[in-house]
Amino acid sequence: MAITREEVLHVARLARLELSEEEVERFRGQLSAILEAVSKVSELDLSGVPPTAHPLEIANAWADDEPRPCLPLDDVFANAPDRDEDFFRTPPA
Amino acid sequence: MTAGIDTLRLTAEEARGLLDRREVSPEELWDAYRAAIDVQNEELNAYLTLVDERAGDGVPIALKDIISTKGIRTTAGSKILGNYVPVFDSTVAANVKAAGLPVLGKTNTDEFAMGSSTENSAYGPTRNPWDTSRVPGGSGGGSAAVVSAGLAPWALGSDTGGSVKLPSAFCGNVGLRPTYGTVSRYGIVAFASSLDQVGPVTKNVRDNAILYGIISGRDENDSTTVDVPPVEVPEPGDLKGVRIGLPRQLNEAEGIEPGVKAAVDVALEKAAALGAELESCELPLSVDYGMACYYLVAPAEASANLARYDGVRYGLRSDGADFREMAMRTRDDGFGDEPKRRIMLGTYALSSGYYDAYYGKAQRVRTVIRREHEELFQRFDVLVSPTCATTAFPVGAKAQDPLAMYLTDLLTIPANMAGLPGMSIPCGLSEGLPVGLQLIGPQFSENLLFRVGAALEAELAFDYVPERLR
Q: Which helix (H) or strand (E) holds B290?
């Protein structure tokens, strides 16, 4: 289950990771080995077996629809790398 | 020792007794742990952040640095959260505060709780108090090391694939991974949300039950939590009528060290002598396919959870000419190798064309694992196995081989995939290192695990103080 250099770069782009050349090569080898190991799941006949997304049988967890105070803005921005009044500031899109 | 307080031996319950009888003051108790930390933390690298102000008059506690603490830096073992100071408390942090337990500090962890040795921390590995050339297990190696070295009477960890059970086994502690949904995940730095669960790390089973009682219960801030049966702090007793299943695939797994098997066998003999009925049983697919299932489901969930680290609202920000470049550089600079690997793996497994073949299949395998366990619990009350095939391994032994590291969790992962509670108790030594015994029960059977654990603990009489520190 060897994955190609192009696939590594494609997945890195999807994941918003800028990898160095050295990382691309290293991850290519490691991810190939890991994917080969996890591909084991395709050995089983799973027809008719429903998926499990969550280990408990909870369907709906209702809460009362009551307004509650939220964090003050200064708290919301306390860890922000950059702030412009009541906005998070980022480089241009 | 400060004021005659031996932090290596003192259990949290005994500490509570000293406070109640006014034999020591809250300040003396706190100072004793601070003194022990001053002596040992540099060598062990178990605490990442220490709290200077004692906030509470109860028994001090340590929290894994994955647990948000208002006003106290919370790094998740990552550079990307190196300066992150939460503005709110996680529910479990609020619970321990409400119980009057002052937080001593935040303990080291593999980055984002991804790892089995604490070597993936951006802040350096934690050392095992039994042998400082060895790892304490992971991801919660810091919490296990502080309890075992007497730097905290008890601690909280979090367990996704085995991150409470494994370090507890490697450090000679009692560690509980509770039933999924019994402890709130609100304010826990998210790794894999359908698996993450906070649990207590303690010196004995009674402390574990007491701490589980403090942190468990339904929380309106986490819609996956449920009402929890009242916690019963156990008295050691017999095990008459308890049906113990010994899954062959867990107990005869490849690579189980002879010393581990010998220690587990002794525990099983004690269980039989206490009146338990022991019988071999099968988990035909859960162990064989558990690893593959876990390493698709957990990275898939992680790749989504870790998308939030984009340099905008909190955490590290690297320079970039536009938003996209800034976000990509931030993530490359801020994440270490293991989160990157898992983000890549999870993104791949969820990507167009591969979703059904990987993530979709893994979710179905998860159903198979759940059903196999449900079937066994119609005949058995508890399943028992080693927690890990080996004892603590040397620092560096698996650091270059991600797959070898992943296999460390082979025996803890199946029960986690099924959402079942599991407890590791120490059952002896192998070449001077602790061996963990894993007890697995059906969902919400924590009281039974405490009862069985307490009965075995009394018979095994394991000395939880590391030999080199006695």
A: helix B286-305
Q: Answer whether A38 sits within 8 Å of B335, measured CB to CB.
A: no
- Residue A64 is predicted with a pLDDT of 87
Contacts of A91 in chain B (CB under 8 A): 320-323, 325-326
| pLDDT tier for residue A1 given thresholds of 50, 70 and 90 | low
ipTM over 0.90: yes
Does A49 fall in a domain?
Answer: no
Q: Is residue A3 part of a domain?
A: yes
To the nearest whole Å, the CA of A79 is away from the closest chain B CA by 5
Domain presence at residue A35: yes
The two three-digit tokens of residue A52, written as one number: 């499990």
Query: Which of B220, B321, B366 is facing A91, going by the closest CB pair?
Result: B321
Cβ separation B322–A91 shorter than 8 A: yes
CATH at residue A25: 1.10.20.60
* Catalytic residue check, B148: no
Flag residues of chain B having pLDDT under 70: 1-3
Residues of B in contact with A84 (CB under 8 A): none
Half-sphere exposure of B83 (CA within 13 A, CB side): 10
Lowest mean pLDDT among A16-25, A61-70, B90-99, B117-126: A61-70
3-state class percentages of chain A: helix first, strand second, coil last, to nearest 5: 40, 5, 55
Question: What is the count of residue pairs from A and B with beta carbons less than 8 Å apart?
Answer: 176
Cβ burial B379-391 (10 Å sphere, 16+ → b, else e):
ebbbbbbbbbbbb
Q: Of these residues, B121, B139, B148, B303, which one is catalytic?
A: B139
Please give the pLDDT value at position A61. 84
Q: Could you tell me if residue A88 is inside a domain?
A: no
Query: How many independent structural domains does chain A possess?
Result: 1
- Judge whether B145 and B46 are in contact, CB under 8 Å: yes
In this predicted structure, what is the pLDDT of residue B3? Answer: 58
The whole-number pLDDT of residue A93 equals 87
Domain spanning B12-274+383-469: which superfamily? Amidase signature (AS) domain (3.90.1300.10)
Range of the domain at A13: 1-42
Set of chain B residues whose Cβ sits within 8 Å of the Cβ of A2: none
Cβ distance A11 to B360 less than 8 Å, yes or no, reads: no
Q: Residue B314 corresponds to which tokens in the numbers above?
A: 């909190």
CATH 3.90.1300.10 domain extents, chain B: 12-274+383-469
Rounded CA separation A81/A88 (Å): 8
Q: Do B313 and A49 touch (CB under 8 A)?
A: no
The tens digit of pLDDT for each residue in B333-388 reads 999 999 999 999 999 999 989 999 999 999 999 999 999 999 999 999 999 999 99
pLDDT of residue A2: 83
